[in-house]
Design a protein that fits this description.
- There is one protein chain.
- The protein is of the alpha+beta class and 161 residues long.
- The chain folds into two domains: 56 residues; 80 residues, Glutaredoxin (3-Layer(aba) Sandwich), CATH 3.40.30.10.
- Strands 2-1-3-4 form a four-stranded mixed β-sheet, covered by helices on one side.
- Helix 1 runs antiparallel to helix 2.
- The radius of gyration is 18 Å and the shape is elongated.
- The chain binds FE2/S2 (inorganic) cluster.
- FE2/S2 (inorganic) cluster binds next to helix 5.
Length: 161
C-alpha cells in the first residue's frame, strides 16, 4: 500500500488504491488520469506531482499525456458544467444557437468559466438523448427540447442553488 503521510497532497484512499492497482499495467497513465479527473473534475497540478512520485514517472511525461488528449482538463471547472450537445440531431435542431446564446448570457466563450466559478460551458458529442434534441446537461441533469428563451431560467435555477 502507498504511504499517504508526509506527501504534499493527500489523495483519497480509493484513488490511491486505484493507482496502486494500475501502477504496473500497460496504459496505466491514461486510466489513472481518467480516475483523477473523475475525482476532481480536472487534473490538479499538485495531484499530477504526487502521481509522478507514486508511479515513478517524470512529470513532463504526465503532462505530455494530459495536453495531448483534449479530454483532460487542467483548470478547475465551474461548479455547474453546462454541456451543449453538438451531435448531428442536436446540431440540426439548433444546438449551435443554444451554445451561442449561453455564450451571450454567461459572457464567456466555449470552454470558459464564469468569474464567480459557478458555470463552465462546453460542447460535447451526442449524449444519447437525440429524441429530445436539442439537449444540454448541467452536471448530470438533462434538459431537452430546448429553445433559447428557456436558457435564462435554467441559469437562474442553478444560480439560486
Ligand atoms: S445528437 Fe444530441 S443527444 Fe444525440
Amino acid at each position: 500500500m502507498f504511504e499517504k503521510e508526509g506527501t504534499a497532497v493527500k489523495l483519497p484512499d480509493t484513488l490511491l488504491k486505484f493507482i496502486e492497482e494500475w501502477k504496473d499495467k500497460p496504459g496505466n497513465l491514461i486510466m489513472i488520469l481518467h480516475q483523477i479527473q473523475e475525482e476532481y473534475g480536472y487534473i490538479p497540478r499538485e495531484v499530477a506531482i504526487e502521481l509522478s512520485r507514486l508511479i515513478d514517472t517524470p512529470l513532463a511525461k504526465i503532462y505530455g499525456v494530459v495536453t495531448f488528449y483534449h479530454f483532460f482538463k487542467q483548470k478547475k471547472p465551474g461548479k455547474y458544467m453546462i454541456s451543449v450537445c453538438m451531435g448531428t440531431a442536436c446540431y440540426l435542431k439548433g444546438g449551435e444557437d443554444i451554445i451561442l446564446e449561453f455564450e451571450r448570457l454567461l459572457g464567456l466563450p466555449v470552454n470558459g468559466i464564469t468569474e464567480d466559478g459557478l458555470f463552465s460551458l462546453q460542447a460535447v458529442r451526442c449524449i444519447g438523448c437525440c429524441g429530445l434534441a436539442p439537449v444540454i446537461t448541467v452536471n448530470k441533469e438533462v434538459f431537452g427540447k430546448l429553445t433559447k428563451d428557456m436558457l435564462p431560467g435554467i441559469i437562474a435555477k442553478f444560480k439560486g442553488n
